Amino acid sequence: MSLDDSLTVIRGACGHDCPDTCTWIVEARSGKAERLYGDPEHPFTRGTLCAKVNHYLDRVYHPDRVLYPLKRTGKKGEGQFVRTTWDEALTDIAGRWNSIIAESGAEAILPYSFAGNQGLIQMASLGQRLFGLLGCSKLERALCGEVAGKGISATNGCGYGVDPEELVHSRFIVLWGTNTIVTNLHLWPVIAEARRRGARIVVIDPVRTRTAEQADWHLALKPASDGALALAMMHVIIRDNLVDHDYVQQYSIGYEQLAERVQEYSPATVASITGLPAEEIERFAREYATTRPSLLRPLIGLEHHHNGATMYRTLACLPILTGAWRDRGGGLARSTGALQYSTLNTDGVWLPQHDKPGVRTLNMRDLGRDLCSRELAPPIRSLCVYNSNPAVTTPNQQKIREGLLREDLFTVVHDLFVTETARYADYVLPATSQIESLDIVPAWGHHYLSLNRPAIEPLGESVSNTEFFRRLAKALGRDESWLFESDESLLRTALSSGHPWLKGISYERLWEEGYVRLNHERDWRPFAKGGFPTSSGKAELYSEALFERGLDPLPAVGEIRRGTGNQLQLITGKTLHFLNSSYAHIDRHQRREGKLFVEMNADDASGRRLNDGQLVEVSNDQGTVKAVCRISDRVGPGLAWMPFGGNGDADGNPLSVNTLTPEEPTDWGGGSGFYDTFVEIAAC
Ligand SMILES: Nc1nc2c(c(=O)[nH]1)N[C@H]1C(S)=C(S)[C@@H](COP(=O)(O)OP(=O)(O)OC[C@H]3O[C@@H](n4cnc5c(=O)[nH]c(N)nc54)[C@H](O)[C@@H]3O)O[C@H]1N2
Ligand SMILES: Nc1nc2c(c(=O)[nH]1)N[C@H]1C(S)=C(S)[C@@H](COP(=O)(O)OP(=O)(O)OC[C@H]3O[C@@H](n4cnc5c(=O)[nH]c(N)nc54)[C@H](O)[C@@H]3O)O[C@H]1N2
Ligand SMILES: [Mo]
């Protein structure tokens, strides 16, 4: 890095929680970044950034950025702080934690983090080591990805799937509960190319999203009824003998039981569950089974329902029946995250062997309940939040805020901004942005590993997550050398797995080239010849493992939740200008998203005597959020849609849509049924 006035050009990679992991180029002069733009050479992200990261430097240099340690002066939640020093803050934090550990045990401290920075070491490395060694409560991080991964793994043994770049070879692409154009922008050109080559694009989504508008076929089914749709498809596939019997026989178990199970799910029966005409289900099933290669692309939408895991488990049976996995571009493509991580030496980065054994695990979904619990022993006495903003993103927000208000809770937040969560903190500590820290970013939407090089020095007194944990370890008086490992050394450790896909991918090469595609042949078909890593070694249409856990061993509909009386089902989805709750406090992005609104269709609005543009109350037994009514045919009867991510309602109250969502766990996988929220909507 140069501090003279010559221009430096540094390659980096976005660390946001998004499948795309774009690579970018930063131009800096005199220690200041002047331009940040997409790297045109990256084969997947191709020089295009999204509506958020196009303005990343506004985020880096935002006047509200926290640049110095802050100590609370006002009441919790007021957001009143004074500047303090790192030394003072760390001494106080270490002192308090040491007392808590002595009095209640380290489990009384809950480190709370998610994927706010999804770089390899900034997401999880020295923090895992330090908190593991101390024996702090562990966190089950299952708000995103886990339910889908576990559901699909129940059938396939793992969540691996088709390399997203291979989708150009598909001829029937089903975007199943994913709004690609908004959330996974860089996959769209691949899909467009497949379409140019003759592919049909189908979207399955209760909402007519932007992606649905661009599709060839939109099946607007009722929420959470996807398992039923998949069972009806299997019914048709078996009834009409569209099964790849050779594939099924060689590479799966449980076909007979499955065939019996799907008998009761005729399209006519399933029509009433899904709200789709029987004829449309028939046609869809036949086209799916007879067009090759056919590909299913589910992302996150399904997992935010109570029956989430069951739905993914059921969906995963479809490409087994049709043998779609044999084809190039056929099968199922979800997150590439697990696959990328399986190539890395993660144990070397996390060092789980030093973890204190027998420590409890709390689920991130239950934060509000756990903070307010009178039974939890020991109670949570301190929270250390980084890479996450639970006061906005986690269900039952009012409960979380009630917990964060506890006078006897000592809260430390490490972030770039005084987030809604940080407003309740005792200390807010400044975090670096992505252009100020070093990392490797494994993508969950493609097969490139990217190196993010810092382009400028940390602003103010901000520190990266890894440096934050080194400082904490020192303040706590620890002297284990592995708590102080350097970023570069951690990254070299990660690359030292010896995995064949990392062959030829060294730290030096990443430094030089910026990104490298995992080292496997282009035409990689994970299950073309079986090889499912289940206990039977085959795809499990019938799963003994599920049965042993007391779960349905066969693909199923699962329990579909519906509201009562006059309630509408509320889906709270991702938006173009926010990245979960990030960017929501930046004027430009807030203006683009506008006031919080709720969409419902004309019949539901007229039944409630509501007009377009009117301020309404959206409420349930957890709370009330004010929103502008939008009458829209994007949603069908009984359904409402609100944008997730903003941190204020339409009346200026600091309430997010997660005021209304319950902690309700998913069937399995540890997630949250965010979208099984039922609300009344009435004029204010
Ligand atoms: N611009 C932007 N991009 C993002 C994010 C962001 O906040 N903003 N967030 C990032 C993150 S963390 C993630 S996990 C990904 C998520 O990426 P996606 O999975 O694409 O995004 P979601 O909007 O969560 O949900 C996808 C769709 O599922 C639909 N859906 C809801 N319930 C059902 C159902 O029961 N059945 C079916 N078939 N569909 C259903 C919703 O209407 C929605 O259109 O996006 C990432 N990218
Ligand atoms: N109602 C509803 N709720 C949802 C969802 C939904 O669709 N609807 N989606 C869910 C999903 S899929 C997800 S993934 C979660 C996301 O939930 P969160 O992970 O809480 O997402 P963010 O709000 O983006 O919070 C990330 C925070 O990390 C901070 N951060 C970024 N980089 C760094 C860094 O390097 N160091 C530190 N210390 N901090 C950093 C950011 O400034 C930001 O405040 O939300 C879930 N909640
Ligand atoms: Mo997510």
Explain the overall architecture.
The protein is built from 26 helices and 27 strands. With 684 residues, it is an alpha/beta fold. A six-stranded mixed beta sheet has the order 5-4-17-16-15-6, with helices on one face. A six-stranded mixed beta sheet has the order 23-25-24-27-22-26. The longest helix has 19 residues, at 86-104. The mean pLDDT is 97. The protein binds ligand MGD (2 copies) and molybdenum atom. Molybdenum atom is lined by residues 17, 144, 300.
Question: What is the strand and helix layout of this fold?
Answer:
Blueprint: E1 7-13, E2 23-29, E3 32-38, H1 56-60, E4 70-72, E5 81-83, H2 86-104, E6 109-113, H3 120-123, H4 126-134, E7 138-140, H5 146-156, E8 172-176, H6 180-183, H7 188-196, E9 200-204, H8 210-214, E10 217-219, H9 226-239, H10 245-251, E11 252-253, H11 255-262, H12 267-274, H13 278-290, E12 294-298, H14 308-315, H15 318-322, E13 331-332, H16 337-342, H17 346-350, E14 361-363, H18 367-372, E15 382-386, H19 390-393, H20 397-404, E16 410-415, E17 427-430, E18 439-442, E19 448-452, H21 465-475, H22 487-494, H23 507-513, E20 515-517, E21 539-540, H24 544-548, E22 568-573, H25 587-593, E23 597-600, H26 602-607, E24 615-620, E25 623-631, E26 639-643, E27 677-683
Parallel strand pairs: 6-15, 7-14, 8-9, 8-12, 9-10, 11-21, 12-13, 15-16, 16-17, 22-26, 23-25
Antiparallel strand pairs: 1-2, 2-3, 4-5, 4-17, 18-19, 19-20, 22-27, 24-25, 24-27
Helix pairs in contact: 5-14, 9-12, 9-13, 9-14, 12-13
The protein binds ligand MGD (2 copies) and molybdenum atom.
One ligand MGD binds next to helix 6 and strand 22.
